[in-house]
From TrEMBL:
Catalytically driven reaction(s): beta-D-ribosylnicotinate + ATP = nicotinate beta-D-ribonucleotide + ADP + H(+); beta-nicotinamide D-riboside + ATP = beta-nicotinamide D-ribonucleotide + ADP + H(+)
Pathway noted in the entry: Cofactor biosynthesis; NAD(+) biosynthesis
Similarity comment text for this entry: Belongs to the uridine kinase family. NRK subfamily.
GO molecular function, one term: ATP binding
SUPFAM superfamilies: P-loop containing nucleoside triphosphate hydrolases (SSF52540)
Species this chain originates from: Orthonyx spaldingii (Chowchilla)
GO biological processes: NAD+ metabolic process; pyridine nucleotide biosynthetic process
One Pfam family this sequence matches: AAA_18
Protein known as: NRK1 kinase
Keyword Transmembrane: no
Annotated keywords: ATP-binding, Kinase, Magnesium, Metal-binding, Nucleotide-binding, Pyridine nucleotide biosynthesis, Transferase
Length: 200
């Protein structure tokens, strides 16, 4: 049995969840773990001097639990509770390969996670488009006025810069303004190449 762990990270509202769901429906034995499921309760998330809840930082997440969930899936993907479905087109030679897509906004800046990835993708968006998309979404708790400019976007830039400066981390940057079909086609082909390498 072989496992492939794919990171789908990047900017808020970049299309990570949509892409992950589409990939899952096309790939054999594929499950998804979402970073959003590991947020601490609001009462445990720090507030800065402007009154902004600091959600877009590692401290707002139970990162150790996330690592544990991924590792337990890797040990036993069939009984991890991450549901996998078999697409009709699965070829026999992929029967014993299991794929996990981990999607989230802050995947590659936490050292214990970085040893787990087979492939890392990072969706980017320009400021205006990201702000526009974010304004159409409803969050619990809701974004307060100025939150995007005061916290969300600066933290995205901070973590993206850290990533770009770390030469040891191989990341495939994706343009989130491209069509969903284009992004899906590119990432799917890339993952299939990885699967073929695993089988060799």
């Amino acid at each position: 049995m072989k496992v492939l762990v794919i990171g789908l990270g990047g900017v808020t509202n970049g299309g990570k969840t949509t892409l992950a769901e589409k990939l899952k429906s096309m790939l054999p034995n594929c499950g998804i773990i979402s970073q959003d499921d590991f947020f601490k309760p609001e009462s445990e998330v720090e507030t800065d001097e402007r009154g902004f809840k600091l959600y877009d930082v590692l401290d707002a997440l139970y990162m150790d639990e996330m690592v544990t969930s991924i590792r337990s899936w890797m040990k036993n993907p069939t009984s991890s509770g991450v549901v996998t479905e078999e697409p009709q087109s699965t070829r026999d030679n992929l029967k014993n390969v299991y794929i996990l897509i981990v999607e989230g906004f802050l995947l590659y800046n936490y050292e214990p996670l970085n040893e787990l990835w087979n492939r890392r993708y990072f969706l980017t968006l320009p400021y205006e488009e990201c702000k526009r998309r974010r304004s159409t979404r409803v969050y619990q708790p809701a974004d307060t006025p100025g939150y995007f400019d005061g916290h969300v976007w600066p933290m995205y830039l901070k973590y993206k810069n850290e990533l770009e400066e770390d030469a040891s981390v191989q990341v495939d940057y994706l343009d989130g303004t491209k069509s969903q079909e284009e992004l899906l086609s590119y990432v799917y082909s890339d993952i299939i190449q990885e699967l073929n390498k695993l089988r060799e």
